[in-house]
Design a protein that fits this description.
By secondary structure, the protein is α+β, with helices and mostly antiparallel strands. The protein has 3 helices and 7 strands, in the order E-H-E-E-E-H-E-E-E-H. The longest helix is centred in the middle third of the chain and has 14 residues.
């Protein structure tokens, strides 16, 4: 199984409940197990439209047998199932799931970049990531 790190965040609706539900859904994915969870932090939005609410953010450490592409597809299905809709870039969202790191792989495709392209620019990702590494 491959060790991966996922970013998780929400700034719409009941943010804590959204994160808990997403964690539950990730933990029920076939051949995938959560093995670490950071503290959840409230953070200001970075980028995107003005006036959006604060986020709750954290990082999950998982083991999975999925390829990076298949894992991303599964995460997008969870987001859609929870009501996430594409609006403006970096806009408000019910749930946001990102692959931050996938083992030690570097992937650069049109639809998937790992490590996450803004990983090292975001304290709200780096601090919780350091908790679970």
């Amino acid at each position: 199984m491959t060790v991966c790190y996922l970013g998780i965040g929400s700034n719409l609706g009941n943010r804590g409940k959204n994160i808990a539900l997403a964690v539950e859904k990730i933990n029920t994915l076939r051949d995938t197990k959560i093995i670490g969870v950071s503290k959840i932090r409230q953070t200001k939005p970075v980028g995107g439209p003005a006036g959006q609410g604060k986020f709750l953010n954290g990082v999950l450490k998982i083991k999975t047998k999925f390829s990076a592409a298949k894992l991303m597809w599964e995460l997008k299905k969870i987001e859609a199932g929870m009501g996430r809709r594409k609006t403006v870039r970096w806009g408000p969202r019910v749930i946001d799931l990102d692959i931050l790191l996938y083992a030690e792989k570097v992937i650069k495709r049109k639809d998937l970049t790992i490590p996450h392209p803004r990983l090292f620019q975001r304290d709200f990702v780096l601090k919780p990531l350091l908790e679970v590494i």
